[in-house]
Amino acid sequence: MKRQTLAAGGLAVTMALALSACGGQTKEETKAEAAAATATEQAAAGKGTAGGETKDVFPLSDSVTVTIAGARDDSETPLGDRQFFKDMEEKTNLKVDWIDWPQSQVVEKRNLAFAGGELPDAMMGNFILDTASLVKYGAEGWLMTWNDYINEEYMPNFYALCQRAPGLLESITAADGNIYGLPQFDYSITDVTNDTLIINTEWLEKVGMDMPTTTEEFYQVLKAFKEAGDLNGNGKISYAMFMGQLGNVEAIYRTQYGVEDANAVLKEAGKPELEYFDASNTDCYQVDQDGNWSATAANNYMNTNLAQYSEANGNMIELVICNNDGMAEGAISALNDKGYNLGTADCVTIPVFGVDATDAAKQLIKDGKMTGTIKQDAEGMANGIAYLTKNVAEGKDLMADTSDFNISEKVANKIYIPYAAYTGEE
Fold first, then answer.
1. β-strands 53-56, 238-243: how paired?
2. Alpha-carbon span 371 to 349, nearest angstrom
3. Are 286 and 293 a contacting pair, CB within 8 Å?
4. Buried b (16+ CB within 10 A) or exposed e, 175-189
5. Which residues have C-beta within 8 Å of that of residue 316, sequence separation ≥ 6?
6. pLDDT tens sequence across 141-176
7. What is the pTM of this model?
8. Bridge-partner residues for 4, per DSSP?
9. Contact in structure between 32 and 23 (CB atoms under 8 Å)
10. Centroid of chain to Cα 6
């Protein structure tokens, strides 16, 4: 069904119920059946007529059985098993033989029913009849018209609703002046959601907590999830690596040793080594193809990654390592779009590391959105240069007494000055 929205009062109307007649009938028989069906609808409202007077008729003295076709997703509870309908049957003595039409097959099932004349007594549910079909089948006489029954005598509740909601009747009236279906009605200004909050009970067991029942308990559960780490529950840290440029020695070393050094620490602690998130990528990195070490490249990669690798799929990326802070910014932006790394106490933060200790990275770390970066050790470089200069000034070999330094094994007269970690300190 087509959802019709009126501007006044935020009214939203969806055709939800249409009553039909049996196939093979004449138009006169159809009208007679429609009247009988309308009487059934009156009973559903708890009213009936006798000698022109309205009286209570529930529960019905003699049980009546009708067939109603409804649409539902495979994941939803069958209509006949829903407690609301069971309770209504008990209270009214009106029995329903439900026909469940799979949501994906509604149009096909509906069209076959009309083509073969094998119609249920009623069809119920959002989108079971779009506006064009409702008008078409109504004009052909397959559906009853409600015009004569929307009044205080037959439908007092719906009639009262129409009085409170100007424009409601007009919105469900076809161009020929007839009303062929009853609406689902939402009188709120904002949309109403049927979404359900779902929590992974395995995670609850992991952190030793019960299902939350209040907002404060929910907050504590989210906080526990955040602090627990290893969202995938496989005992390993799944990481992504963003490389700045192919063939660049600095990029190669940052990519290689960023993982190797982390694995050395993990191994010493008796923990499993890092595991690249995409097993099909044997390079174990994603590189900026333009060689720009850019935030844009990392952002595009991360958005693509998160579409497939997520908590919902049980394969979430749990660590992000970048060749520079710019790429870290791009990765964090993608994480922000998915609700991660927002810097709030109730938000899951994926550790993201960069290199260069830029002002932007320092701010992200301060805001709780980035975990750390690497800064050049200016003091260490100054000390190294001063030491070598002193050797030359004293007539010694340039590399004399430099065993305490990190000397290159492959390049002569070269000393490496290690980077220094930055995680928020000045």
1. unpaired
2. 9
3. no
4. eeebbbbbbebbeee
5. 231, 232, 238, 309, 310, 350
6. 888 889 998 999 888 988 998 898 888 889 889 999
7. 0.46
8. 13
9. no
10. 28
Q: Which of 310, 291, 361 is nearest to 332 (CA)?
A: 361
Q: Print the SS3 string covering the chain.
A: CCCEECCHHHCEEEEEEEEECCCCCCHHHHHHHHHHHHHHHHHHCCEEEECCEEEECCCCCCCEEEEEEEEECCCCCCHHHCHHHHHHHHHHCEEEEEEEEEHHHHHHHHHHHHHHCCCCCEEECCCCCCHHHHHHHHHCCCECCCCCCCCCCCCHHHHHHHHHCCCHHHHCCCCCCCCCCEEEEECCCCCCCCCCCCCCHHHHHHHCCCCCCCHHHHHHHHHHHHHHCCCCCCCCCEEEEEECCCCCHHHHHHHHHHHHHHHHHHHHCCCCCCEECCCCCCCCCEECCCCCCCHHHHHHHHHHHHHHCCCCCCCCCCEEEECCHHHHHHHHHHHHHCCCCCCCCCCCCCCEECCCCCHHHHHHHHCCCCCEEEECCHHHHHHHHHHHHHHHHCCCCCCCCCCCCEECCCCCCCEECCCEEECCCC
> At 197, is the pLDDT very low, low, confident or very high (cuts 50, 70, 90)?
low
343 vs 150: CA distance, rounded Å: 55
The C-alpha atoms of residue 387 and residue 377 are separated, in whole angstroms, by: 15
The amino acid that residue 124 corresponds to is: M
Q: Cα–Cα distance between 232 and 106 in angstroms, integer?
A: 38
